[in-house]
């Protein structure tokens, strides 16, 4: 079973061409709506933007995990994007972001949303995983890295 059951192979963007934080969020919202056509791109973008106003989802080491809850969504949804150029994301460590993991959850997801965020963060803390993500040749390789990584830490 994949480590991230809410991530599918079609939800991997190996090269996102955004030049600013807001553009990254807009592009992630647009990519998500292509896979979740019942959602409105403006609603997704506004949800992500509102979350960013609470504090940056740039967690450090060049990684951001923008996330939010949306009405009309019936399952957890993940989308990953490797940026073709690092973008200032006001990250905790000040480093620009070159990898983003978008996580969307149903409005009433409660603890499932937090568990999914923790699961993503655990995988991205695996020793060497970020180097392998940055070196991955294509979407298939990125997907394989994120869904077949074994975590040695307890949940």
TrEMBL record:
It comes from the Bacteria. It holds the Pfam family PTS_EIIA_2. InterPro entries: PTrfase/Anion_transptr, PTS_EIIA_type-2_dom, PTS_Nitro_regul, PTS_SugarTrans_NitroReg. Signal peptide: none annotated. Coiled coil: none annotated. Residues 5-149 form the PTS EIIA type-2 domain. SUPFAM superfamilies: Phoshotransferase/anion transport protein (SSF55804). Gene3D superfamilies: Mannitol-specific EII, Chain A (3.40.930.10). This is Nitrogen regulatory protein. It comes from Methylobacterium cerastii. The gene is ptsN_2.
């Amino acid at each position: 079973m994949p480590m991230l059951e809410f991530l599918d192979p079609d939800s991997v963007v190996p090269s996102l061409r955004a030049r600013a934080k807001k553009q990254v969020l807009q592009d992630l919202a647009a990519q998500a709506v292509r896979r979740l056509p019942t959602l409105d791109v403006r609603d997704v973008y506004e949800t992500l933007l509102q979350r960013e106003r609470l504090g940056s989802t740039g967690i450090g080491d060049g990684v951001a995990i923008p996330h939010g809850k949306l009405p009309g969504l019936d399952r957890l949804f993940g989308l990953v994007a490797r940026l073709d150029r690092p973008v200032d994301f006001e990250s905790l460590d000040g480093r620009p972001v070159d990898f983003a993991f978008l996580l969307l959850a149903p409005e009433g997801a409660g603890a499932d949303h937090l568990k999914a965020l923790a699961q993503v963060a655990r995988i991205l803390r695996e020793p060497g995983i970020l180097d392998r993500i940055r070196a991955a040749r294509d979407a298939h390789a990125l997907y394989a890295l994120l869904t077949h990584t074994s975590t040695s830490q307890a949940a």
